[in-house]
Amino acid sequence: METETTPRENEGPIGAHDRREGGSSEPGIFIPDGESLSIETLSAVVKNPNSRVVLTDEIRKRVTASRDLLDKFVKSGRIIYGVTTSVGGFVNWLLPPSLAGEAQNNLLRCVQTNVGDYLDDAYVRAAMLARINSLGRGVSAISLENFEKYVAMFNRGIVPCIPEKGSLGTSGDLSPLACIALVGTGQWRAKYQGEILSGAEVMKRADIEVMELGYKEGLALINGTSQMAGMAGCLTDSAKQMINAHILGTCMSLEVQKAKIMPFHPAAHVQKPHPGQMRVADCIYRTLADSRMIVQDDEVEAWLHKLATDEPHKLGEQIEDAYSLRATPQVMGPVLDTICFIQRTLEIELNSASDNPLVVVAENDVVHNANFHGQYISNAMDQLAIVLTTMCNLSDRRNNRLLHPDLNGDLPPFLVKEHPGMRLGLMGGQFMATSVTAENRQMCTPMSVQSLPSTGDFQDHVSFGLVATRRTRDILKNTSYILAYELICAAQAADLRGVEKLSSATRKMHSILREEVPYLDHDIPFTDYFETVAEMYRSGAFAPAIPDIEAYDW
Question: Which of 125, 336, 409, 429 has a CA between 20 and 30 Å from the CA of residue 308?
């Protein structure tokens, strides 16, 4: 039986025992079992304002059991970090349980130190969902009443304001998660129904009683990797969708540059069977099976035989393409394989208990630990930054070949057919793409190795996981501009060569693009078109064109 932490009609504020029956088959429902949260589910739930978190009886039982066990230990006089001791640089100070509430509230206020612009709403909701899922494992010893109130905050659309800069990522995301917890206790501020209001006012309007914290509960709410893991999960899901569309866009680039199909034949890749390489090659080879623009192997051989003589001589064409075309599977393959590894890492993190200490009923014990450390996320986001930039490097080189009058075959210089010289065509767009590519490359310096000690050397190794995640967010957005430019160039070249010769899949992608960006027979400011196509990549607008080929589903 599933229950939801929202009140029945005409009931008062949510408290410890307010429940309503619910159904797990209902669309938009998420059950935080602490085991099965995927990045796809995370992304879908946080983007859907009508989604709801539903608690099962089993989740309630294990959350309650962990809290009951901690109560037992406190009554027995055990010394437990963050319960009967202070925290951080004051770890060597004992605190009586009678001061627990004040100490936990002081903890929230003290660590809420972030600065800068507020994180996007989806990333805040991702942090809340990740924290709920972690607490749902039932080893964090939060009270059921406060857990239900946290779930209600998510379900009723409360979005705490979280400044994005300042997290060390060592005891997790202390400051970002404290912003959420403070709103739950009636402090700080949040967005609610289009307004930014005080925490007290938000909780009142949402008809949720404010949290009253007992020992350990401040730690349970803020000591973990939920902000960086939730945000990283959204970014990785977006990156996967963008890359699938880009592989299809790459097929169009290969077609209009009259690339040769042989390098994508499965016979080559089965001899170097990296999964990502094989997937990319299979996508390209099968997508272009009905293309009349890609160059087939028998055409190359017939052409060479025709030009053969008894003496060495230079040809106007060549038997193999440049690496930016021919080596696409070998360059994009590591991108796919790395993202698959990142996804596995993030899904383990999202389904983990990442606070300290853990009150584990199965062990009948309190386990002091360092699961809050964000090194896994920091490493993963550094890797995502690198492979996205690798992809941009490849796109930048293909862009150059499409425009360069000495490299683009019989296409007009800078893809300008009408009034060349008087018009500059797509020349100016390369300024943007090259600049943004260089910016991405500069931002690839790893954050995961930048550790600096803090908190009186108690936190003497830090991950900067949220910094790495924010930086990767910026790289991902830059990447969408670079891919947008390549697609606009490829579509322009396709019009010049004859759209009817494209493969069925790339022709459909071309059609979707042309609903927003026309064939360019006159010079115009490009910024709005670049923004539009970049957003199309980010929003999944090209998904209907992706063919039903298994290799695209990775």
Answer: 409
- For residues 552 and 283, the answer to whether their CB atoms sit within 8 Å is yes
Query: In sequence order, which residues have a C-beta less than 8 Å from that of residue 110 and are 6 or more positions away?
Result: none
pLDDT in tens, 49-58: 999 999 999 9
Q: For residues 129 and 122, give the distance between their C-alpha atoms in angstroms, rounded to a whole number.
A: 10
- Residue closest to 469 by CA, chosen among 379, 535, 351: 379
Instruction: Spell out where 60-200 has E strands.
Output: 115-118, 159-160, 163-165, 189-192, 195-198
pLDDT digits (tens, 9 = 90+) for 55-70: 999 999 999 999 999 9
Q: What is the number of alpha carbons within 13 Å of residue 310 lying toward its C-beta?
A: 0
Tokens of 121: 């709403």
Measured CA angle at 221 (ends 217, 222), to 5 deg: 120
Residues serving a catalytic function are 81
Distance CA 74, CA 57 (A): 26
What's residue 8's pLDDT? 38
Residues 6+ apart with CB under 8 A from 126: 42, 43, 46, 227, 230, 231, 233, 234
Is residue 175 a contact partner of residue 114, using CB atoms and an 8 Å limit? yes
CA angle at 307 for the pair 303 and 310, rounded to the nearest 5°:
140
In three-state secondary structure terms, 358 is: strand
| Tens digit of each residue's pLDDT (9 = 90 or more) over 309-355 | 767 755 666 777 899 999 999 999 999 999 999 999 999 999 999 99
The 10 Å Cβ neighbour count of residue 390 is 18
- Would you say 18 and 5 are in contact if contact means Cβ atoms under 8 Å apart? yes
CA–CA separation, 49 and 156 (whole Å): 9
Query: Residues 6 or more apart from 65 whose CB is under 8 A from it?
Result: 138, 361
